[in-house]
Write a sequence for this structure.
C-alpha cells in the first residue's frame, strides 16, 4: 500500500518542490547579478557562464558516460576559452593575460580532441 502511495505522489511532489524552488533560485541569480560590478568584463564573464549553463542544461544525457563526459567537457572548455578572451581583452596584469592566452590555446586543442572523439563515437541508441 505504501508503494502505491509513493508511486502516485512522488512525481507530483517532486514537481511541486521544483516549482516552489524556481523563484528562490531566480532571486539568487538576480541577486548575484545585482551585486556584481557593472563593468564590461564582469558582464562578459557572466554572459559566458550563462551561455555555458544554458548549453550544458539543454544537452541531453545519452546514458553513455564517455559520450556525456566528452559533450559536457567540450562545453565547459568553450566557456573557459570565452572567459580567457575576456581577460585578454580587459585584463591588465601581464601574467594573467599570458595565462589566459595559454588557456585559449590549451582548451581549444582539447575542444578539437573532444569533437574528434565525438565524431568517431556517435551515440548508440
Amino acid at each position: 500500500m505504501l508503494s502505491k502511495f509513493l508511486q502516485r505522489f512522488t512525481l507530483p511532489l517532486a514537481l511541486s518542490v521544483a516549482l516552489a524552488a524556481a523563484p528562490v533560485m531566480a532571486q539568487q541569480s538576480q541577486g548575484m547579478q545585482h551585486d556584481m560590478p557593472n563593468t564590461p568584463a564582469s558582464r562578459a564573464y557572466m554572459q559566458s557562464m550563462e551561455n555555458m549553463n544554458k548549453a550544458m542544461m539543454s544537452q541531453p544525457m545519452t546514458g553513455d558516460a564517455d559520450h556525456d563526459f566528452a559533450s559536457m567537457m567540450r562545453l565547459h572548455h568553450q566557456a573557459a576559452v570565452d572567459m580567457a578572451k575576456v581577460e585578454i581583452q580587459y585584463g591588465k596584469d601581464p601574467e594573467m593575460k599570458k595565462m589566459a592566452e595559454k588557456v585559449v590555446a590549451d582548451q581549444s586543442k582539447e575542444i578539437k580532441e573532444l569533437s574528434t572523439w565525438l565524431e568517431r563515437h556517435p551515440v548508440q541508441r
Notes: The chain has a mean pLDDT of 83.
